[in-house]
Amino acid sequence: MIAQPIAIKSTGLVTSVGMSAPASCAAIRAKISNPTETRFIGSDGEWIMAHQVPLEQPWRGRTKLAKMAAMAIAECLDLIPRESWPTIPLLLCVAERERPGRLDGLDNQLLLDIESEFGMRFAVGSAVIPHGRVSATMALAEARKLIYSDKVPQVVITASDSLLTWPTLSVYDRAGRLLTPTNSNGFMPGEAGAALLVGRPGDTTEVRCTGIGFGREQTNIDSDRPLRADGLAAAIRAALSEAGCGMHHLDYRITDLSGEQYYFKEASLAVSRILRKRRPCLDLWHPAESIGEAGAAVGLVIAATASAAWQKAYSVGPDILVHMGNDGGQRAAAILRCSGHG
């Protein structure tokens, strides 16, 4: 059954490689990255490298998260009259509660901090979605409900996340999960703010989400059980079913993969279990190559990347699989279908 689609109307990004969506997406397309030394030293005695967002002042913690989100939202809503903003619900994606070193106040204060940046409140229906990398897909599902069931014309989905605190980095460092000169099986930590304005599909050139699916993986990254990718495969199958298409109809993939072999293996296994018709190529894009592991923000970065690729006519094709998963075992997938002439 084909689900009710929602369309991406505009985007906003604040990343280590660009302070706007066009700049960030151009850098991601060119595979440009900008890692710099942090204030922290790893267990190998070397400075930990990370993808850091260079704001005009050295804000940190929740203040920086609010600033990045506000910048992305302002870009995303640039063509919407300011007086109309309070009529739009805001869905805020943040780190999962199990994240090591998670900042205080993400569930009950960050949304208020963002509203304070604008001196206004967003509409009824605004909510916080605290599930890390799968938050964006959950937010798309909630936005679809608001748009079709609650008759809300448009919804803003935003995310702001950072792994650049010592309580977080120290845990990943001790677990051997950070990318270093002596460890290739790891990720480079990052941070980002992102926003999407979504609504009912129109007649313009746009990217639409036509299917959403979720699953749960029992064999997590720290498990000693064999990895079968059951959770990700279930999420992809559910998204394909909603979209009314098969894996062989898709042109390429954009994912949250950030360097760890476990997640690359999982993605490969999931595709091999679902794809039943031969395809000569199914490209794999992963924006973390440029912006680092950006946690809850990556899902919206993926959506913005897909939108820019279609609008700028460098997309591999109109049908895209996106998928992501967090360390707690939650898995999510979505089918994006581009309309108009990219």
Compact summary:
The protein has helices at 21-29, 61-76, 110-118, 135-148, 166-174, 230-243, 261-274, 288-291, 298-311, and strands at 6-14, 36-41, 47-50, 90-93, 127-129, 154-162, 191-199, 206-216, 252-255, 283-285, 319-325, 330-339.
Written description of the protein model:
- With 342 residues, this protein is of the alpha/beta class.
- It has two domains: 6-199, Thiolase/Chalcone synthase (Peroxisomal Thiolase, Chain A, domain 1, 3-Layer(aba) Sandwich); 206-339, Thiolase/Chalcone synthase (Peroxisomal Thiolase, Chain A, domain 1).
- The protein is 30% helix and 23% strand.
- The protein has a ten-stranded mixed sheet with strand order 5-4-6-7-1-8-12-11-9-10, with helices on both faces. Strands 2-3 form a two-stranded antiparallel ribbon.
- Helix 2 crosses helix 3.
- The longest helix has 16 residues, at 61-76.
- The protein is globular, with a radius of gyration of 19 Å.
- The mean pLDDT is 95.
Give a topology summary.
Layout: E1 6-14, H1 21-29, E2 36-41, E3 47-50, H2 61-76, E4 90-93, H3 110-118, E5 127-129, H4 135-148, E6 154-162, H5 166-174, E7 191-199, E8 206-216, H6 230-243, E9 252-255, H7 261-274, E10 283-285, H8 288-291, H9 298-311, E11 319-325, E12 330-339
Parallel strand pairs: 4-5, 4-6, 9-10, 9-11
Antiparallel strand pairs: 1-7, 1-8, 2-3, 6-7, 8-12, 11-12
